[in-house]
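Because showing beats explaining, we think one record worth quoting, sequence and C-alpha cells together, and here it is:
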Amino acid sequence: MDQADTVPKHVGVIMDGNRRWAKEHGLAASKGHAAGQKALYGLMHHAFSCGVQYLTVYAFSSENFKRSPDEVGYIMRQVTVALGKYLKELVDGGVKVVFLGSREGLKSSVLKAFDMIEAATANNTKGTFAICFNYGGEQELTDAVRSIVRDGITEAEITPEVVANHLYGPEVPPIDLVIRTGGDQRISNFMLWRIAYSELMFTPTYWPDFSNDEFDTMLTAYAERQRRFGK
C-alpha cells in the first residue's frame, strides 16, 4: 500500500447498539439515540482531522420504519432538531453535508431540513459528511436502474461507470473502510455498490461508547492491510 493510501479516503460506519446501550443503562431507547448522536458529531470532526475525506454513516434504514411508531417519530423529530443545532458548527467547520436515500415517505419538515443544510454547506471542502437516511442498498440499485432506463441508455451502453453515476450522490466515491459497532458482523443492506472492495472491521462496542481512540486503532489496522482489488 502506498503511503498516500494508509489513511482511508472514505469511511463508512454502521452505527449499531444505541438501543442496547440504553437498555443496559436503564434508559429509554430515545436516550440511546441521543447519546449516539453526540458520539457521531465527535467522531466526524476527528475523522476529518485524521485525513479522512468522506465519512458516510447509516443513520436510518428504509427497514427501520418497521420499528415502533414512537421510536420512528422520535428519530424523525430529532434529526430536524440536530441539523438545526449543528448547522453553524458544520458551516463554520467547512464540512459539506449530503443525504443519501429515498425522499419517499419522509415528512416535509425532514426534507426541508435536509435541503437547508445541503444548500448551506454545498461549497465546504474540509470533508464530506454523507448521511444515509431512509436508505437501503437494494433500493438504491433499483432506483439507479430506473434512472438509467429513464435516461434512455441502451443495454450496450451500460457499464459499471454508468451505474455508479446513477446512484444516490454519485459524487461520493467507493468506501475504503467499513466499521460496524454493536457486535454484529453483517452489512445490513449498507452501500452495496460502494463496498465492493471495502475493508471490513467489527467491534462489540455499542455506538454511543465508540471512541476516537478505537477509531484510531482501526485506522492503524487499515494501514497495515494490503488491498489487492483482485490482483
Remarks:
- The chain is about 40% helix and 15% strand.
- The radius of gyration is 18 Å.
- Residues 69-92 form the longest helix (24 residues).
- The chain has a mean pLDDT of 94.
